[in-house]
Structures are given as structure tokens and as C-alpha cells.
């Protein structure tokens, strides 16, 4: 009787696990984006020519890709770089995104190319 209860308990779990594998795989294709980059040395505020030991990249993206990132980074920052009408800003770690009525969505991030570490891609 005890073995029968164990067998029934195991059998009851099989349909639940069988259904878990029925989901369609998520297709995650790369999408095009519009943007620009800058390779530099020094800091963003005081850029210098890159050297062998000091080489960073700042990346800016705009348009649809920037809007998708902006939307994923809620909520808006209370303290922003400007008080211009309609300006919105969102930040998570070293990634910052902005919305301005006249220029739309933009996101900024960067990397230290010598270490691979994430760094900011914009300054106020």
C-alpha cells in the first residue's frame, strides 16, 4: 500500500513536468540600432588621445533601441542633469538614458577597453 501511494505521487508529478517542456523556445534575434561611439583616453570631461595603457569607449544609441532601454529602466530620476521642460532621465548602474522632446531617446554607456569594466558613457 505504501509503495502504491509513492507510485501515485510520482505519477501525479509527471504530467506537470511534461507540460513544462511544451513552451515554444524564445527567439532572441539581434536588432539593428542607430548610434555612435568614441574611443578616448583620460576622462569623458577631459578627453585625450587614447594610449596603449589608457583606452576607453563611450557608446551612444538613439531611436527605437534607446526607447526600449529607457522603458526597461523605470522609474525616472528625481535629480536630473537639467530642468528643461519635458526632459526625463533614467539610470541603472553605469547606463543612463534620457528623453528630450526635441531629440527623442538616447542612451549612454561605456567600457574601459584595457580592463573590460563598465564605465559611464556620459556626463552632465
Structural class: alpha+beta
The total count of helices amounts to: 2
User: Overall 3D geometry?
Assistant: globular
What's the SSE pattern? HEEEHEEEE
- Beta content comes to 25-35%
Question: What is the distance, rounded to the nearest whole angstrom, between the alpha carbons of the first and last residues?
Answer: 73 Å
Q: Domain count, please report it.
A: 1
The beta-strand count equals 7
Percent helix range: 10-25%
Radius of gyration: 24 Å
Largest sheet: 7 strands, antiparallel
Residue windows where pLDDT falls under 50 for at least 5 positions: 1-16
Average pLDDT over all residues? 86
Structure write-up:
This protein is an alpha+beta fold and 124 residues long. It has one domain (36-124). It is built from two helices and seven strands. The longest helix is centred in the N-terminal third of the chain and has 19 residues, at 2-20. It is globular and about 50 Å long.
Amino acid at each position: 500500500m505504501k509503495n502504491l501511494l509513492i507510485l501515485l505521487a510520482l505519477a501525479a508529478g509527471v504530467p506537470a513536468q511534461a507540460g513544462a517542456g511544451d513552451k515554444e523556445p524564445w527567439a532572441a534575434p539581434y536588432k539593428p540600432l542607430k548610434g555612435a561611439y568614441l574611443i578616448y583616453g583620460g576622462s569623458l570631461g577631459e578627453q585625450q588621445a587614447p594610449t596603449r595603457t589608457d583606452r576607453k569607449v563611450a557608446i551612444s544609441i538613439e531611436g527605437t533601441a534607446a526607447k526600449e532601454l529607457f522603458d526597461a529602466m523605470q522609474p525616472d530620476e528625481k535629480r536630473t542633469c537639467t530642468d528643461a521642460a519635458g526632459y526625463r532621465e533614467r539610470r541603472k548602474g553605469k547606463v543612463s538614458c534620457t528623453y528630450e522632446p526635441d531629440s527623442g531617446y538616447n542612451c549612454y554607456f561605456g567600457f574601459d577597453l584595457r580592463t573590460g569594466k563598465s564605465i559611464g558613457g556620459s556626463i552632465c
